[in-house]
């Protein structure tokens, strides 16, 4: 027994020694590297929110270096600070274009504290270590947005600041970068909790944030210089240039999601809960569809899963809503509703009877708002006049697809009549209306309409015949008479079957792109059966 115990004891000692060596090596390879901040360079454009951070650093015995207005700000707090000029031996020169671009500063940030050669050179050239850099950038985007002249804009391209950010972030193993005033409060909290020190994980995190800031900034400058150039690459999606909003979840509850963009610039949220991922996708579909009717009489559209289940134009908002709802009152339940007109009390009272997720309008009467706010979670958005991007992005595989937005909307003057019978005036109006809806409906799609009202659509089908049959069945299910109705197709008919099925259902006029090698089959059927058909030459696939 004693021998067994002796072996066990020796094994324990051996294993303890092995683990001790392991953790020692691990600490060398993957160090926690908690570092006490002993010196900091602070050079910022905006001073708001800076004071608590400066006082905390001072109270922790941190030596402060600074420049220009920031130096004055710190001195006014009765806190000692050393001018950067004392390190560099040079004043701020060239109108402030060169202040911190000097080895005494950049070297103090970049030299590696665990590299004997770097340490020796720092000592040789009397370069002090700089452990923390707090810097923000000249307000380039704000200056562009203000309408300032090009000379003023160019002077707001930051050189020293962006160099400080990149240098400090690169050397995150030794230095901490605070690259935005939005970080001041959280850094104060961090340094308070850790008694003025940071860990490698902290410094790596802020380095990542810093490179996002620099990417954003360079992207804004790139957009300024390439704006209006004909020979420029497609605008890239730079999510770092946009504000972000974490959503409750993605398309499904098990998916995380974030929105990058300025929702507050597009909408004033007047009431209701926060927008979800699916809400935003439907809102985007709503906005793109209703913009086709920007100059039309009052129009209401009801969207469900990005497709219109109802849309109508009428002399009054209430009539337009009533007609849109009649298209498919079943699908309208839980949908997103949008209009191009002011919502008055009479319309609000009808809208209030429907369970909807979101209502979007350019204006609301005050008494209408009071009615609509009676539902706690209903989201009410007032749309602002904002120009939307004309480039679209879609992630696929390990890359991104970029394309121009589909901005082509064909009107009656662009229709080419290809049949012996021409459409009547009312049919032309209905064809134009149907084509606008068709453009914003998932392919393959067929849209059936009468003047200023959707009757039904077949959406996202694998064949055009299936889409047509779905549309006919839906229209009949909600009591619509298809006699005298029109049909729009997002792509050409490869055979005559669709025009035959439509004709037998009562359709009297058709609009389609044309371009099939068998166009004549469809045209011949229409001529033989008194159906009018026009082509546009423009396809509107939507995948």
Automatic annotation (TrEMBL):
Residue spans crossing the bilayer: none
Q: Which UniProt keywords apply?
A: Hydrolase, Multifunctional enzyme, Purine biosynthesis, Transferase
Q: Which domain of life is it from?
A: Bacteria
Its catalytic activity? (6R)-10-formyltetrahydrofolate + 5-amino-1-(5-phospho-beta-D-ribosyl)imidazole-4-carboxamide = 5-formamido-1-(5-phospho-D-ribosyl)imidazole-4-carboxamide + (6S)-5,6,7,8-tetrahydrofolate; IMP + H2O = 5-formamido-1-(5-phospho-D-ribosyl)imidazole-4-carboxamide
Q: Name one GO cellular component term.
A: cytosol
Question: Which pathway is this protein assigned to?
Answer: Purine metabolism; IMP biosynthesis via de novo pathway; 5-formamido-1-(5-phospho-D-ribosyl)imidazole-4-carboxamide from 5-amino-1-(5-phospho-D-ribosyl)imidazole-4-carboxamide (10-formyl THF route): step 1/1; Purine metabolism; IMP biosynthesis via de novo pathway; IMP from 5-formamido-1-(5-phospho-D-ribosyl)imidazole-4-carboxamide: step 1/1
Q: Does the keyword Lipoprotein apply?
A: no
Q: Which PROSITE patterns match?
A: MGS
A GO molecular-function annotation: phosphoribosylaminoimidazolecarboxamide formyltransferase activity
Gene Ontology BP annotations:
'de novo' IMP biosynthetic process
Q: Name one Pfam family in it.
A: AICARFT_IMPCHas
**EC number(s) of the enzyme?**
2.1.2.3, 3.5.4.10
Belongs to which family?
Belongs to the PurH family.
What PANTHER family does the record point to?
BIFUNCTIONAL PURINE BIOSYNTHESIS PROTEIN ATIC, BIFUNCTIONAL PURINE BIOSYNTHESIS PROTEIN PURH
User: What is this protein identified as?
Assistant: Bifunctional purine biosynthesis protein PurH
Organism of provenance: Dyadobacter psychrophilus
């Amino acid at each position: 027994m004693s021998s067994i115990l002796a072996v066990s004891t020796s094994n324990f000692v051996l294993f303890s020694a092995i683990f001790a060596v392991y953790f020692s090596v691990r600490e060398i390879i993957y160090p926690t590297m908690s570092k006490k901040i002993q010196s900091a360079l602070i050079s910022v454009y905006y001073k708001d929110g800076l004071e608590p951070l400066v006082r905390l650093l001072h109270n922790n015995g941190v030596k402060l270096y600074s420049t220009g207005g920031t130096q004055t700000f710190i001195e006014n707090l009765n806190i000692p600070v050393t001018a950067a000029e004392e390190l560099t031996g040079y004043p701020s020169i060239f109108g402030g274009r060169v202040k911190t671009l000097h080895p005494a500063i950049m070297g103090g940030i970049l030299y590696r504290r665990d590299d004997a050669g770097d340490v020796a050179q720092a000592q040789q050239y009397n370069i002090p270590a700089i452990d923390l850099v707090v810097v923000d950038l000249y307000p380039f985007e704000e200056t562009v947005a203000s309408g300032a002249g090009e000379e003023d804009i160019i002077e707001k391209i930051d050189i020293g600041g962006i160099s400080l950010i990149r240098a400090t972030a690169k050397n995150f193993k030794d230095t901490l970068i605070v690259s935005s005033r939005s970080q001041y409060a959280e850094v104060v909290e961090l340094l308070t909790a850790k008694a003025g020190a940071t860990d490698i994980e902290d410094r790596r995190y802020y380095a990542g944030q810093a490179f996002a800031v620099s990417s954003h900034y360079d992207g804004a400058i790139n957009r300024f210089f390439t704006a209006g150039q004909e020979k420029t690459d497609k605008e890239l999606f730079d999510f770092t240039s946009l504000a972000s909003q974490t959503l409750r979840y993605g398309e499904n509850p098990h998916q995380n999601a974030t929105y990058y963009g300025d929702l507050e610039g597009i909408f004033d949220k007047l009431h209701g809960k926060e927008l979800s991922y699916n809400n935003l996708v439907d809102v985007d579909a709503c906005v793109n569809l209703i913009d086709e009717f920007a100059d039309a009489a009052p129009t209401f559209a009801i969207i469900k899963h990005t497709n219109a289940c109802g849309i109508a134009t009428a002399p009054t908002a209430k009539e337009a809503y009533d007609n849109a709802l009649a298209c498919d009152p079943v699908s309208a339940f839980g949908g997103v509703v949008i209009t191009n007109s002011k919502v008055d009390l009479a319309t609000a009272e009808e809208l209030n009877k429907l369970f909807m997720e979101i209502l979007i309008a350019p204006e609301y009467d005050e008494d209408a708002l009071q009615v609509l706010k009676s539902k706690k979670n209903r989201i009410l958005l007032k749309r602002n006049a904002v120009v939307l991007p004309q480039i679209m992005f879609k992630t696929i595989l390990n890359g991104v697809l970029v394309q121009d937005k589909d901005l082509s909307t064909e009107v009656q003057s662009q229709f080419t009549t290809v049949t012996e019978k021409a459409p009547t005036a009312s049919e032309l109006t209905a064809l134009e209306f149907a084509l606008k809806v068709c453009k914003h409906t998932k392919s393959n799609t067929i849209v059936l309409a009468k003047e200023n009202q959707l009757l039904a659509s077949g959406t996202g089908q694998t064949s055009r015949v299936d889409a047509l049959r779905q549309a006919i069945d839906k229209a009949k299910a909600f009591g619509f008479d298809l006699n005298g109705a029109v049909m729009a197709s997002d792509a050409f008919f490869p055979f005559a079957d669709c025009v035959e099925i439509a004709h037998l259902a009562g359709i009297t006029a058709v609009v389609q792109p044309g371009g099939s090698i068998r166009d004549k089959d469809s045209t011949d059927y229409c001529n033989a059966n008194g159906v009018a058909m026009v082509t546009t030459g423009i396809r509107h696939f939507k995948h």
